[in-house]
Design brief:
single chain; mainly beta; 12-stranded antiparallel beta barrel; 2 helices; 4% helix
Length: 246
C-alpha cells in the first residue's frame, strides 16, 4: 500500500496486479519496467488443468501513466475434458488519477485483446475492455480495494458483454507480508454468473521483488471448484528514463 493519492516513484515498493484479481490502483513509476508472472492449477468436477505463465509487462511512460501488455499464456489439461491452447495478446494503457484525497487511489485502464490466441480458449475477434481499480487505506495496516471491469466481445453473438466486480480486504502484517481476502463476480449479459472467494498474499523479497500465492474457491456450480496459484514479480527502475536520455 503506497502513499495514497500520489503516483509511485522509483523509491516506492513494488505494487503488482497479482495475485488477487483486483489490480493495483497504482501505476508503475515513470521510467520503470515491471514483469509479473504466475502459474495456476484449477479443477471443476472431473476436469483439471493449469495455465501459465500469466505474464504481464508494465512500462512507466510518464508520471501517473503506464502501458501494459498481457502476453499469451498456455492453458493445459491435467485430467478430464478441458480445451487447451493459448490466450490472446492484450495491450493496454493505465492512467492513475492524481490529486485524490489522501486515503484513496483510482486508476482507469483501457485495453484491447487481439485475436492471436486459440479460439476455444479466448474467443474470436477484437475484445476491448474498460477497467477501474480503486483502493482506500483505513489505517493501522488495513485497507480495502476493488475493481469494476467491462469486457466486450463484439463477435460473440451469444454474449457480447460481461461485467466483473471485485472487492477485497487487505492487511499489511509487517514490512514484507500483506494478506487479502477477495470476492470476484462475473456477470455476463447472457449466460451463467460465476463467483469466487479468493485468499492469498504477497511477500516482498526487497523493494522491487515480490513472490505471491493465492487459493480461490467457487461459490456456485458454474464456477471452478478451486484455483491455486503462485507467482513472482520484479521491477527495474530508471530503465526507460536512461534510454530517453541517450
Amino acid at each position: 500500500m503506497a502513499a495514497a493519492g500520489e503516483c509511485p516513484s522509483p523509491q516506492s515498493e513494488i505494487a503488482t496486479d497479482r495475485p488477487d484479481v483486483t489490480n493495483s490502483s497504482l501505476v508503475v513509476p515513470d521510467g520503470s519496467i515491471q514483469i509479473e508472472n504466475g502459474v495456476n492449477t484449477s479443477g471443476q468436477s472431473a476436469a483439471k488443468g493449469f495455465d501459465g505463465s500469466n505474464s504481464r509487462l508494465r512500462f512507466g511512460l510518464a508520471p501517473c501513466l503506464e502501458v501494459l501488455i498481457d502476453v499469451p499464456s498456455y492453458v493445459g489439461r491435467l485430467a478430464g475434458p478441458i480445451d487447451t491452447g493459448f490466450t490472446n495478446v492484450t495491450p493496454g494503457v493505465k492512467w492513475q488519477i492524481s490529486g485524490l484525497p489522501e486515503p484513496a487511489n483510482l486508476s482507469l485502464v483501457a485495453g484491447l485483446g487481439l485475436p492471436t490466441g486459440t479460439p476455444a480458449i479466448s474467443g474470436t475477434g477484437l475484445q476491448p475492455y474498460l477497467q477501474f481499480p480503486w483502493s482506500y487505506e483505513l489505517g493501522g495496516g488495513w485497507g480495502i480495494s476493488g475493481m469494476f471491469t467491462s469486457f466486450f466481445k463484439p463477435s460473440d453473438l451469444a454474449n457480447r458483454q460481461t461485467s466483473e466486480a471485485t472487492f477485497a480486504i487487505e492487511r499489511k502484517v509487517n514490512d514484507e507480508l500483506e494478506l487479502f481476502a477477495e470476492y470476484v463476480g462475473d456477470y455476463p449479459s447472457r449466460g451463467a454468473i460465476t463467483a469466487l472467494f479468493n485468499v492469498g498474499g504477497g511477500y516482498l523479497l526487497n523493494r522491487t521483488e515480490q513472490i505471491d500465492f493465492h487459493v480461490a474457491f467457487g461459490l456456485n456450480r458454474n464456477s471452478p471448484d478451486y484455483i491455486v496459484g503462485v507467482g513472482y514479480s520484479y521491477r527495474w527502475d530508471n530503465v526507460l528514463g536512461t534510454a530517453r536520455r541517450h
